[in-house]
């Protein structure tokens, strides 16, 4: 009994090894495989068993071409800043075919007024668009590591590859500007084999027409993509960029502080009068924080700057500058300068200084 148990255990192990060696693929039996089925017929003549006879049938598994291009990552629009270079949006190409295939990759700009993968209407085109493959398979674009490509080489059945589309964003864009791109993959492969040549793009595939042949036929089973039809050997998906930037409004005001005759009571703009300038920097609500906001105000020859009169980061009430903020800034070459470290969305800050009318 113990021996029988050990034998059964050994047979079970052998069966597990066999299953592990030939895993079932979601894509199905590999294209080009030969499937043979043999029938055996046993019979008797005069009660005597005769030599069995039979027949075999063999056919070739055809190539089912199915694949998907899909947006990858957080499934939201990619936020960018005006002037940003090499902004990245991410796709994944999955080979659902029962054959190893190449996939030619192409990116197209969505026409102005068109829609992207997310809420938005295309309003600008990007530039310097390039496609990179995730060479180290970490799901993140790594400059200098990931390789620029025009096709995916020998992607196996049930395998996926991450693809990055990089683009430069124009500088002169406002908050909420939207640009959409379409990535299209086209199936390429060997005409006669279930895999092609490593290191080169095989020929574009054509669907086999007419009746089933004895060889490996090709059947397009791809679904419709963002811009392509079903069963066309292509699949496409969209992704997009949304500009998230500061939306600054600059206002400059002035008010009389005093004059040599009336002093501070109803002063007039006469020579010797002191005037206070206020520069108001407002960032619209919902906008990106503006940083290193450098203000430069050359003075006209008719006024003279009052030393150490510049104050930064003041506030505004009713459109008028308050007497607050902190001393700072500089004055050189008859120009008042100062930098606001940041102005957040919905925030208003000021730079104010005083001068005397010559």
TrEMBL record:
Coiled-coil regions listed: none
Specify the signal sequence span: 1-26
Q: Which residues form the DUF11 domain?
A: 265-357
The question of whether Signal is a record keyword is answered with yes
- Origin superkingdom: Bacteria
Query: What UniProt keywords apply to this chain's record, in alphabetical order?
Result: Signal
User: What NCBIfam families does the annotation carry?
Assistant: B_ant_repeat
Name the record gives this protein: DUF11 domain-containing protein
Which organism is this protein's natural source? Answer: Novosphingobium arvoryzae
